[in-house]
Amino acid sequence: MAAMVHGSAIAIHGSGVLLLGPSGSGKSDLALRLVDRGAKLICDDVVHIENNNSLPQLACAPNIAGKIEVRGIGICPIDFVDSAPLRLVVQLAQDVDRMPPEHQRITLAGYSVPMFRLPPFQPSSAIKVEWALRLVIDAGLLPMSNAEAAFNESVTM
Q1: Domain tally for the chain?
Q2: Model pTM?
Q3: Is 98 considered catalytic here?
Q4: Tell me, what CATH number does 82's domain have?
Q5: Which one is catalytic: 33, 45, 67, 117?
Q6: Rounded to the nearest 5°, which phi and psi values hold at 122?
Q7: pLDDT tens-digit profile of 82-124?
Q8: Is 45 a catalytic residue?
Q9: Annotation says 6 is catalytic
Q10: Of 30, 36, 70, 116, which has the fewest CB atoms closer than 10 Å, so is most exposed?
Q11: Residue-wise DSSP of 100-151
Q12: How do residues 24-48 score in pLDDT, each as one tens digit?
C-alpha cells in the first residue's frame, strides 16, 4: 500500500520522521531547523509513504526532490536523501500535554506509527524531535500494519 500525505519528512541518522500539520503550521520551518542540526531532508510538502518489506518508507516526488520552502525567502535547493524508513510521526500542535500518554500512535497509510504532538516554533522544538525519536528507538517501537496493531491490541486486552 502506498499513500501520499501533505507534510515534511527528514531523516535523522537514517530514521525517517514525518512532520504533519495544516498549511502554515511550521512543518518546513521545523524541517529546516532539523537539517541545520544534521538531519537530511527527504521531502518538503508532499511525502510518499511506500511499503518496503514490512516497514513503511518515506520518499519524495521526483519533481520536488531537493527543494524546501523557506517562508519569506522562497523555494530553495537543499541536500536530501531519497528515502528512509518511517519511525516517528510528529503532529504539530500549539497546545500539547505537559506529560503525554506513553507510546502514542497514529494510523497512517495502513500503519500504526509511534507519534508525538509538539509545538513547532519553540526554540527547543528541533531538539524535542530528536529526543522523541531517541525514545522511540530506545523503546524498540516500530510502525505496525493495522492488522498487527489490531492483533496486539486484542492480545493485551
Answers
A1: 1
A2: 0.92
A3: yes
A4: 3.40.50.300
A5: 45
A6: -70, 150
A7: 999 999 999 999 888 888 888 899 999 999 999 999 999 999 9
A8: yes
A9: yes
A10: 36
A11: PPTT-EEEETTEEEEEEEE-SSSTTHHHHHHHHHHHHHHTT---EEHHHHHH
A12: 899 999 999 999 999 999 999 999 9
